[in-house]
Design goal:
There is one protein chain. By secondary structure, this protein is mainly alpha-helical. It contains 8 helices and no strands. The chain has helices at about 1-15, 25-55, 60-85, 90-110, 115-120, 125-140, 140-175, 175-195. The longest helix has about 30 residues, at about 140-175. Residues about 1-15 have low confidence and may be disordered.
Amino acid sequence: FQKENSDHIIKRANVPLFKFENYKIILIVLLCHFFLGFGTNIVMAIFSVYIKSELKVSHFSIGMLWALGSLLAVFAFKMAGQMVEIFGRRPVIIGSIISYIFATFCYIFLTNPIFLGLLWVFPIAPFFWLPGTAIISDITKRAERGRGIALFTSAGSLGTVAGGLLSGFLADILPNMRYVFSFSFIFIIISLVFAFKMRETKDMGSNN
C-alpha cells in the first residue's frame, strides 16, 4: 500500500506545471490577474510617498490608513464571497476592475488628501482575488487545483513586481507623480479586456 501511494505521489509530482484540461480559460484568468497587478501597483508602490511629499499627509496618518484598510478587508472578503455566490464570478471581477479604473482616475485628477487616502486603502482587491480563485477552483480537477491556484497567485505577484519597478523608474524621470499614475490606466484596461473574455464558471464547480 505504501509503495502504491508513493508511486501515485511521484506520478502527480511529474505532471507539468502548466498542463490543465481547461488551459485556455486558466490562461485568460492568469493574464487578467497579471495586468491588473501590473497596473494597480504602478499606483500602490509609490502612493505613500506621493501623499507624504506632495499632499503633506503625516506618517501617523498613513499608518492609520493602512490599519483601517486592513480592518475593512476583513469585511470586504465576506461581502465579496456573498456577491460571488449571488451574481457569479465574472460580474464581480469586472466590477472590481472598473472600480480600479475609477480609483486611478481620482488619483490623477483629485488632490483632496482625505478622500484619496481613504480611496487608497479601500479594499477592492478581495472582489477580484476571491472570484478569480473561485474560477480556478471551478474549472480544475482536484489533482490540478493546487497548481492552478498557485499559478493564479503567482501571476498577480509577477504583475506587482513589474508595476513596482516601472513605477519607481517613472517617478524618477517624470516631474509629477500623478503623471506616473496615468500609466496605470493602460494595464488595468488590458486586464478589463481579458475579464470580458472570461466565461462564467459558477455552475461548473459542482462537476469537479
